[in-house]
Structures are given as C-alpha cells and as structure tokens.
Amino acid sequence: MSNLEETAQVDKAPSSRFRQAVLEAARRFKAGWFDLAGVLVRVRTQNLFADWGYDSFESYCSKELHIRRQTALKLTRSYSFLEKHERKRMADKDAGVRAPAFEVVEVLAQAEERGQLSSDEYRAIRDAIWDPNRAPGNLKRELTARFPRPTAEPVHGLARFAHTARRLANELRGSARVPRALSDHAAVLADELEALADRDQER
Known about the structure:
The chain is mostly helical.
C-alpha cells in the first residue's frame, strides 16, 4: 500500500467520527424545543416555580431561564397539543427527535385553540406532519393557508385586562388568608388573558 493510500485511510476515520458528531448535534437541536417544552409544562403544572421562590411561571421563565413569556407560552401550548393528540408517540424515548418542528406544531395548536382544527381534521393531516422528508417551512406555509387567522377586528382592552389580572394574581398569592387553590386559579386566568392579548397584538 502506498503512503498516499495509507494517508487517505487515516483521514477517513476522523471524517467519519465528525460526520457522526454532526448527526448527533442535529438530533439534539431538533429535540431541543420538545425537551424544553416538556420540562416547562411540568414546572407550570406542578407549580414548581413557587417552590423555587417565584410568584409566577412567567417570572420564573424570564428571570431564571431568560425566556420571554410569549415564547414559554408557545412552547407549553405546542407540547400540550402533542400530548393530547399523540400519547403513544410521546411515550417513545426518541419522541423528541422524531417530533414535528416547533413552528409546525404551533400553527396547529393555535388553529385548534381558535376552533379551526378538530381531532378528525388532525388525523387527516397527521402523516404529513410527522413525515421527516417534509420541509418544515413549506409545511408551515401550507397549514397557515389552510387554517388562516380570523380577520375580525381586534378586541380592545385585552392588554389592560391582562395587566389587571396579573396584578390581582400576584397580590392573592402574597396573602396568607387566600387559599392556594384560589390564587392558582387567578394565575391561570392571568396566563390566558396575557396569551390572548399577545395573539391580538400579532394580528
């Protein structure tokens, strides 16, 4: 074997290892939103943020994780959508890698929230959603066209309502005379009003 051939064989090994490393990095990147959303749902559902000294889920995300409130809401909403429609797939250890792109799931979650997407409609398009060969950008455009945002006039005062609800929720949580369950209900109401106000601003 010539020196040139020996050098070529030696060079292939590092190249092969690097190729595998790139593949693993891509898998971790794709699973990133799914894994983060999953733990955020747990933090929110179990009120773990309160055990860690925060008065709200949004405050925890913003101050400790440096994640914007709207981003956290989008992540948890998308993950909850998959939990509702894909229980079996969610239990798979590779669910994060195989899950649809976040921007695709977000379109569907919003459509369902607006009443545009039923369970039957989701079943009709689910194969396309989970097809790894479909480009996320193209799929998002198709779904956005299929489930367009309503063109109705925006509701006025939502930001003010959301601010008032958040202030009330914070005050209730700080009172020892108010049952925890009641302050939690107020926090959930504030979350929903804030999400509604944000969606209204995006129109």
